[in-house]
Specification:
Order of helices and strands of chain A: HEEEHEEHEHHHEHEHEEHHHH
Radius of gyration of chain A: 20 Å
Distance between the termini of chain A: 57 Å
Structural class of chain B: mainly alpha
Number of helices of chain A: 12
Distance between the termini of chain B: 39 Å
Oligomer: heterodimer
Strand order of the largest sheet of chain A: 6-7-8-3-9-10
Helix content of chain B: over 70%
Largest sheet of chain B: none
CATH superfamily of chain A: P-loop containing nucleotide triphosphate hydrolases
Radius of gyration of chain B: 22 Å
């Protein structure tokens, strides 16, 4: 096996390259103007900005759902729009803000659909697909929900299913549009940990987040979306400074410092280490019920 | 002890979350065989029942040996009953299969094969043909059915998308325009309105072998197409963006399936008229029984629809003194049954 670190390092590591990219829905209101940017694998990018500042649009451009009006977007040195959609599906997965499934599929079936890009036309899902699905369900603490209909579970659970489905796609690039908006703090931290692990193994994760507690934990690099343009901060310690946050959000935000002078979110490992253990919940629930 | 037992069972289920998936698949397979068996038995049974009763074994003899002592029996079975029975099965299969397809493609559980106005177009064409005094209204009906779908697609599609809600809206508009057209023709007809009405209500009386030759190729193409796209329809239910993101072009699937199925629907409506509720009720019934996976749901819906219309039409044909349009029967029985399903599946969101 070739490890990405050894051979052709720059070529393999470089994932997205945006060159002079511009995008607008209406010519009067440009959303992205002359953007030069490179997004590398093995790095977690967090997109921050006010409502309607173009974060979702940016993610949709990265996914090829929208075509840039000017400029080019290249994925691994090839124009993104010259790929077949089925090929992109094996490289990039996308979790949208609103995840609606229109018929009462079970959670299991929904997550299994993440294997669609790997399936030969007109054939059934393979044993391996089922195994992957099972392991992803277990990894994301969804095993108990596997039978449930997706139309009948809560918003947060649905969001976990959406994340599980995109993990099931096993792509090196993950684009997440506000993936934690409905999650409780336990699962937010749990998924942050999971994505950080993936990033360490060489994935590229691009996430738009509104939660300023979660954002520093997940970020390696930060992209600020402002009316005057998009700015990249490669050092997150510098990105989460009060003056920058004030400029972007028009709100005074101060993060507490630790005793050694570092930002509090530098101690991410201590915060996100506790993995959820679904079976322990079950035990408690049953013990609690048996008392009545 | 009970708690302990419950817990181990839960643990077992967690260990194999895919079990329900495979059990459901098995259940669907068993159901398919039961329905197919029922279809085969009723097929022969109905060949024998009617004004002239023919014993079951004699029907088998006529079918398989092609000869019989009784020439009349043979004529009745081959030239009168068989086309109508085959026709009812094919039309039932088309309507139910397309109902399932339309609900998936339009992302709307209320969709039926008639949602996009193909039926109204065909009914208008048929009425027009009857008004102009054509002997055979089928071809004009077929043509107008396709015309209406083309208008709907042109209205519903913008440059790059084919949005379900837009499609449904334009379907409603086109449908009501053609309905008004039919009403206008009815007004012009004055006394002879009954022939139009009978046909609009949906009736399989007087189906001929010639009709079957029109129906058969389109339904075969439809059924093969449905088999090929069933998997993609599941993906389509995740919404357009997610489908595209998984490597499936939703606009292409939508356009492709709508065009292919519209031929079959136009053929079915032009021959049997507007037979209500088969295309709405059958998909819902089986979705409740075996879940929404289209790889299981589509074949079962087709067989179930064939069975339903076979039974309904033959009850009308063989057991009633006067011929009631079968569309009236399916709607009369289907409506209350649909209410029952709605009440029964309370809490289930579609």
């Amino acid at each position: 096996m070739l490890s990405p670190g050894k051979i052709g390092r720059t070529k393999i590591l470089m994932s997205y390259s945006l060159d002079n990219l511009s995008f607008y829905y209406l010519p009067k209101k440009p959303i992205i103007k002359n953007l030069h940017l490179e997004l590398e694998r093995g790095c977690s990018y967090v997109l921050l900005g006010t409502n309607g500042s173009g974060k979702t649009t940016f993610l949709r451009i990265l996914n090829g759902l929208l075509k840039p009006v000017f400029g080019s977007i290249r994925l691994n040195d090839t124009d993104l729009h010259s790929y077949k959609r089925s090929k992109i599906a094996q490289l990039v997965s996308f979790v949208p803000q609103n995840y609606t499934v229109h018929f009462p599929f079970t959670v299991y079936e929904t997550v299994l659909m993440g294997r669609y890009p790997y399936k030969a036309n007109f054939s059934d899902y393979s044993q391996k697909d089922h195994q992957t699905t099972l392991s992803i369900l277990e990894k994301t603490g969804l095993s108990e929900l596997a039978y449930k209909k997706i139309t009948e579970i809560s918003g947060g659970e649905k969001q976990r299913v959406a994340l599980a489905r995109s993990l099931c796609q096993q792509t090196p690039i993950l684009l997440l549009d506000e993936p934690f908006s409905n999650l409780d703090i336990h699962y937010s931290l749990f998924f942050i940990r999971l994505f950080k692990d993936l990033v360490q193994k060489g994935s590229l994760v691009v996430t738009s987040v509104h939660d300023l507690i979660m954002a520093p934990l997940l970020a390696d690099k930060v992209l600020f979306f402002e009316p005057q343009g998009i700015s990249l901060y490669t050092d997150k310690e510098k990105a989460f400074q009060p003056e920058i946050l004030k400029r972007v959000f028009k709100v005074n935000i101060h993060f507490p410092h630790l005793d050694d002078g570092k930002q509090w979110f530098s101690s991410i490992n201590a915060m996100t280490n506790n993995q959820p253990s679904p079976s322990s919940h079950v035990v408690n629930q049953h013990e609690g019920l048996s008392k009545f | 002890m009970m708690t302990h037992f419950g817990l181990t069972r839960e643990r077992l289920e967690i260990a194999d979350s895919s079990r329900v998936f495979f059990e459901r698949k098995k259940r669907a397979r068993i159901l398919t065989f039961i329905l197919l068996g029922g279809l085969a038995v009723l097929f022969f049974f109905f060949c024998g029942s009617g004004f002239i009763h023919i014993p079951f074994l004699d029907v088998l003899a006529i079918m398989f040996k092609q000869t019989s002592e009784n020439q009349l029996w043979q004529d009745v079975v081959f030239n009168i009953r068989l086309p109508r029975i085959l026709g009812s099965m094919l039309i039932g299969g088309i309507l139910a299969g397309c109902g399932t397809l339309f609900q998936a493609v339009l992302l709307n559980p209320l969709a039926s094969p008639f949602t996009l106005g193909i039926s109204s177009g065909a009914a208008f064409g048929g009425s027009l043909a009857l008004y102009l005094g054509f002997q055979n209204p089928v071809f004009l009906a077929f043509f107008w059915g396709l015309v209406s779908l083309m208008i709907v697609i042109l209205l519903g599609g913008t440059r790059k998308t084919l949005h379900p809600t837009r499609l449904i809206l334009s379907g409603v508009i086109v449908s009501s325009i053609f309905s008004a057209g039919i009403s206008f023709l009815k007004y012009l007809f004055k006394e002879e309105v009954s022939s139009v009405l009978f046909w609009i209500m949906g009736s399989l009386a007087g189906l001929t072998w010639q009709n079957i030759t029109l129906l058969l190729p389109f339904s075969v193409i439809l059924f093969i197409m449905l088999g090929l796209v069933s998997d993609s329809l599941n993906i389509l239910c995740l919404g357009d963006d997610q489908a595209l993101q998984l490597g499936l072009n939703p606009v292409f699937i939508r356009l492709f399936t709508l065009v292919i199925s519209s031929f079959a629907i136009a053929a079915a409506v032009s021959i049997g008229g507007v037979i209500g509720f088969v295309g709405l009720i059958v998909p819902h019934l089986f979705r409740i029984l075996i879940g929404p996976d289209h790889r299981l749901l589509l074949p079962i819906s087709i067989i179930g629809g064939a069975l339903l219309l076979l039974v309904a039409d033959n009850i009308v044909r063989a057991f009633f003194q006067l011929e009631i349009p079968v569309g009236v029967i399916t709607t009369l029985l289907g409506g209350p049954f649909f209410c029952f399903l709605l009440v029964k599946s309370e809490g289930q969101k579609y």
